[in-house]
Amino acid sequence: MERPEPELIRQSWREVSRSPLEHGTVLFARLFDLEPDLLPLFQYNCRQFSSSEDCLSSPEFLDHIRKVMLVIDAAVTNVEDLSSLEEYLASLGRKHRAVGVKLSSFSTVGESLLYMLEKCLGPAFTPAMRAAWSQLYGAVVQAMSRGWDGD
């Protein structure tokens, strides 16, 4: 697999990483719009959220958003050596599988990530940048998918 263009990734992420919670919320709001069936997977203390707004404003979910943004941050930092994150990403995959996430949902997460980047960067989010992010995200999901191996 071709390596994504590191400079394009870093440059675009710098802008996003200034307010990760804000941008992460945009990502998940988009995700729940595209795939509302994911909402019931997020339960804290056995409490179902009545709406995506309810979920997006809960302290526990905000914590999940922060963690997701940190994973993306780690991928950006290690964009030139993603293999160093392979074990970590595979175990992250296993955790997601254990709570009932389907591997196919990660393509919707990818769409939501690109949507968030576009919203954040506007016209600065070029087709080359989009391609670089698609590549990086594809590599991350490939590593995470090892957590679903052996089905």
TrEMBL record:
Listed GO CC annotations: cytosol; mitochondrial matrix
UniProt-listed PROSITE patterns: GLOBIN
Reaction catalysis annotation: Fe(III)-heme b-[protein] + nitric oxide + H2O = Fe(II)-heme b-[protein] + nitrite + 2 H(+)
Domain Globin: 1-149
Single GO molecular function: oxygen binding
Record keyword Cytoplasm present: yes
Keyword line: Cytoplasm, Heme, Iron, Metal-binding, Mitochondrion, Oxidoreductase, Oxygen transport, Transport
Compartmental location: Cytoplasm, Cytosol; Mitochondrion matrix
Gene3D superfamilies, alphabetized: Globins
Stated family: Belongs to the globin family.
Complexes and interactors: Monomer. Homodimer and homotetramer; disulfide-linked. Mainly monomeric but also detected as part of homodimers and homotetramers. Interacts with 14-3-3 proteins; regulates the phosphorylation of NGB. Could interact (ferrous form) with G-alpha(i) proteins (GTP-bound form).
Task performed by this protein: Monomeric globin with a bis-histidyl six-coordinate heme-iron atom through which it can bind dioxygen, carbon monoxide and nitric oxide. Could help transport oxygen and increase its availability to the metabolically active neuronal tissues, though its low quantity in tissues as well as its high affinity for dioxygen, which may limit its oxygen-releasing ability, argue against it. The ferrous/deoxygenated form exhibits a nitrite reductase activity and it could produce nitric oxide which in turn inhibits cellular respiration in response to hypoxia.
Protein name from the UniProt record: Neuroglobin
Organism, as annotated: Balaenoptera acutorostrata
Gene that encodes it: Ngb
